[in-house]
Design a protein that fits this description.
Number of strands: 13
Structural class: alpha/beta
Helix content: 40-55%
Strand content: 5-15%
Number of helices: 19
């Protein structure tokens, strides 16, 4: 099951009650389930099995019930010596092509019910006729039975790294283990050995017997391969630790950034210049050897220019995914707040933004970078300027003359609402004073903004003032005003109408954004 991470933290820093309940249920299930410990290494021969047996002997000395379900010695004397004194379950024989092959006896292990069971070589494929085709499936059944399992695993057997390993060593690894087993393990202990020491062990016959060791040294056990696999091992373990740290911060609602690892968060605006921003961020992430994520904060309504920006952002996100970035679309109204929340959620210590030229009418408008600097000074920013070509391409297209076809009905309905309010006001003036009728026009503006949005709300506010002046202020049927006090009434009426209309439109937008975020989460919960 995949859950969409919108990057929006709990309000007021308080944990989500539903999340706490789910965490308690997960803890109860985990308490009944056995714990998995994986001795993880880059290659055969680094000492995983020996480390597991050494720890088992220590547990036995402390009185814990430890049993070896299956341990492969491969003819190595030091491994066989460490196995002495540990109870070993007998293997059962399975017929395969007229040959009896010894295999791990899962039923005997379940009947024995030890506190700790040693199961070597997690990626092993079982002999045909076994209950499960893979040994890791045997381990899952043991864990469900409440038995702690210790096992060994090499990095090349992880499913997600299969293609990468194949490209390094030139051999397709057929036996793989799903990553969730590795990620959900209670403990992962890295058993590491420098390549030169491992090659020396291979030469001394401590990894494979002589004929097999000679073939391995010519093919798999080359120093370049060993270095690459060692790096993969350390990186994959670091990813697991990083995920655990993020879970810890999320469970405890920790908003402060912990820059334990370089992670970049790139915010795009749906501008043609975003492509250059993503390329620069990709090069920066490569230089810093950092994880990076590209996000776009999208409004709930995507019409006109908003729709074109959203389409451009989706194209840029696809480009970022090709470069290896994690991508996401965040529903939100305040871009700065959404980016800051996402940075905290993913523990991103650097925020990468583009510098977009301001229009003349935006001279007093604060940029996203300025608002982040003022409201969240703890987040480091990298602002990348657009080149000359980017600035030419990033000029917003001029809107066509007149209203966009998709918005014209909204303004028409706003006009009709004001005319209807005028007709009702004409009837009410027979009973009420003009000052009371003003409230009817204000109510109309609020309803228009709530139903049709910000633009029609502004239009309704101005039209309401004009209608009140033309039809109800002496001299009527004229925009001339005899009493100058009405100018203050008009200004106050227009100001209140604009403010209430804008606030109502903002609440409407926030409601749509929250509904969209909920729909996106529900859609991913069904996957």
């Amino acid at each position: 099951m995949a859950v969409l991470d919108t990057g929006i933290p709990p309000r007021d820093g308080r944990p989500d009650p539903d999340a706490l309940l789910e965490k308690l249920q997960q803890d109860e299930q985990a308490a009944r389930r056995g714990k998995l410990r994986i001795y993880f290494g880059s290659n055969a021969g680094v000492g995983k099995t020996c480390a597991m047996l050494t720890a088992a002997r220590q547990e036995l000395a402390q009185g814990r019930d430890v049993v070896a379900g299956i341990v492969e010695t491969h003819g190595r004397c030091d491994t066989a010596e460490l196995l002495q004194g540990i109870e070993v379950l007998p293997r059962h024989q399975l017929m395969h092509r007229e040959h009896a092959l010894p295999e791990f006896d899962l039923d005997a292990a379940l009947a024995r019910q030890p506190a700790v069971l040693l199961v070597d070589e997690l990626a092993h494929s079982n002999v045909q006729g076994s209950r499960h085709p893979k040994r890791w499936q045997d381990v899952e059944e043991l864990l469900r039975a409440g038995i702690d399992v210790w096992t060994t695993l090499n990095v090349q057997h992880l499913e997600s790294l299969n293609d990468i390993v194949s490209g390094i060593i030139g051999i397709r690894v057929r036996e793989t283990v799903p990553d969730h087993l590795f990620d959900d393990a209670h403990e992962v202990l890295v058993i590491d050995l420098p390549p030169d020491d491992l090659l020396r062990r291979l030469k001394d016959g401590k990894v494979y017997l002589a004929p097999q060791a000679e073939r391995a040294s010519r093919n798999f056990f080359r120093k370049g391969n060993l270095l690459a696999l060692r790096e993969l091992t350390l990186r994959r373990t670091a990813d697991r630790v990083d995920a655990q740290m993020r879970d810890y911060r999320r469970e405890r609602s920790i908003n402060a950034l912990w820059p334990a690892r370089e992670r970049l968060l790139v915010g795009i605006a749906g501008d043609p210049a975003d492509e250059r921003l993503v390329r620069e961020a990709a090069r920066l992430a490569q230089k810093l050897e950092a994880d990076w994520m590209v996000v776009h904060v999208a409004p709930a309504q995507r019409r006109g220019i908003g729709a074109s920006r959203y389409a451009a952002a989706m194209k840029t996100l696809a480009l970022a995914a090709e470069f290896g970035a994690e991508t996401a679309t965040l529903p939100g109204m305040d871009v700065a707040q959404a980016l800051a929340a996402c940075a905290r959620e993913h523990n991103a210590n650097r925020l990468v933004l583009g510098h977009y030229p301001r229009r003349v009418w935006q001279v007093w408008h604060q940029s996203v970078s300025d608002r982040l600097s003022r409201q969240h000074p703890e987040i480091d920013q990298i602002v990348i300027a657009n080149g000359p070509a980017d600035r030419q391409r990033s000029v917003a297209p001029k809107p066509e003359a007149g209203l966009a076809p998709s918005r014209a009905p909204a303004y028409l309905w706003a006009s009709l609402a004001c005319f209807a309010a005028t007709a009702v006001a004409a009837l009410l003036l027979k009973v009420f004073d003009p000052a009371n009728v003003v409230m009817l026009f204000l109510l109309t503006v609020v309803l228009v903004a709530l139903r049709l949005g910000r633009g029609p709300g502004v239009w309704a506010a101005m039209l309401a003032v004009l209608c009140f002046d033309f039809f109800f202020v002496q001299p009527v049927w004229s925009f001339t005003v005899n009493d100058t006090q009405y100018f203050f009434t008009f200004a106050l009426m227009l100001g209140i109408a604009l403010i209430t209309g804008q606030l109502t439109a903002r609440l409407r937008h926030q409601a749509r954004t929250a509904a969209e975020a909920s729909d996106m989460n529900n859609a991913y919960l069904d996957i």
